[in-house]
Amino acid sequence: MMKPWEATHPVSMKKAKQKIERAFPELKPVGIKNCGTGFDHTVYEVNEEWVFRFPRRQMGFEAMRIETRMLRSLTEIEFKSEFEYPSLAYYREAEDDDYPYVGFSNIRGHVLTEETNTDFLHQHAVQIGTFLKKLHSLPSEKVDADPDHLQRLSTKLRKNHFYDIAEQSSSVIPGVFYEKLLSYIDQLEEWENATGTTPLHGDLHPKNMIVYNGRLAGIIDWGDAHIGHPAVDLSIAYACMTPEVRKDFFEAYGDVNQRTHELARFKAVFIMTVLLRYAKDTGDQDVLRWGLAGLKKSLA
């Protein structure tokens, strides 16, 4: 049985270079470097200036289309952000049985999970809160994004699956935290998806944040962007901040009701558990470290 992140359409560095040089001769000679592999894409840095993303599977192709639409919208409305976000520079339609692929501006730095300090975002709590306040205040009619068809906040839909993911991750979760996780899932009420009219990043977690020169510099991977409930993004405060620091975050973002806090916590615990399953299956020790720290914070 394939894992959710296994590739059906892998693109090697050699193949990527050939594709890019053929499609965009102005980039020759292409200097190419592997930037890593995510759930949905294989990513290469090109000429130190661009980042090309190649979908690894159907969900990656769909995420690429969503990301392209969202980033075009942010560029068109001249969204001013505390952090860099990619801008679309190149797009190539599919060749043969491959998917289309895109090239974005390169945000220099490294992925947050490479940082050893899992409290790294504490110094940026106010900035992140301000960033999300601005993003969530954008008029939804000016953002080219769809409603939350995946029902990301529905415990009625996801509770049984949550148990499965927890069990699949159990070998890398210390016993005391695993029992606490199961207890949290046991006590979850089963609610329908919370809807909303807020423009969202949709997948804000440590693998989608870029650090440069000791500071949080950029937000990447907008492939889950949609119009929905703000708790989806606010989950970052539960996943990466202690309760004390979380107060600073929400002072910058603004007051939210208790239900929104509950939804944000649910999203954080769920995503951290998914990251732990990914870390177990891939052997990624950086993601394992951040996943365990995030699970502890979100359950606190």
From TrEMBL:
Residues 33-258 form the Aminoglycoside phosphotransferase domain. Gene3D superfamilies: 3.90.1200.10, Phosphorylase Kinase, domain 1. PANTHER family: AMINOGLYCOSIDE PHOSPHOTRANSFERASE-RELATED-RELATED (PTHR21310). It comes from the Bacteria. This is Aminoglycoside phosphotransferase domain-containing protein. InterPro entries: AGP_Transferase, Aminoglycoside_PTrfase, Kinase-like_dom_sf. Pfam families: APH (PF01636).
